[in-house]
Specification:
By secondary structure, the protein is mainly beta. Helices cover about 5% and strands about 55% of the residues.
Length: about 110
């Protein structure tokens, strides 16, 4: 069955433990029995995604808009700007910080996180 979702019509939910971070789930195991989770993450200016690790999932990121800094333990710091594509393999520590313009990222977890 095909799926068509419109981002503006997909409700934003607060991140379960990060302040000023919202998520719009587009495709998930829970809702669609999907093998991946796809969502758009919005980080308000000044917010931070603290250092964390996904032990079972790769985190695949494409920056749609905004400006921030990302750190990955095997690479160090680098800018997040529109058009930047990032793959964080499972098991690597990473974080996003210094959000100087509201950040909008398309985020995919493989295998599905939820």
């Amino acid at each position: 069955m095909s799926i068509v979702r419109i981002l503006a019509e997909t409700p934003e939910t607060s991140h379960p433990f990060l302040a000023d971070v919202g998520m719009r789930t587009l495709y998930s195991r829970r809702e669609d029995d999907a093998a991946i989770t796809c969502f758009v993450v919005r980080c308000k200016m000044g917010s931070e995604i603290e250092e964390h690790v996904h032990p079972n999932e790769a985190d695949i990121i494409y920056v749609l808009s905004g400006k921030a800094t990302m750190w990955i333990e095997d690479r160090g710091e680098f800018p997040l700007n529109p058009g930047v594509f990032v793959v964080v393999p499972k098991g690597l520590k990473h974080r996003t910080f210094n959000v100087v313009e509201e950040l909008l990222i398309y985020d995919v977890f493989y295998p599905a996180m939820f």
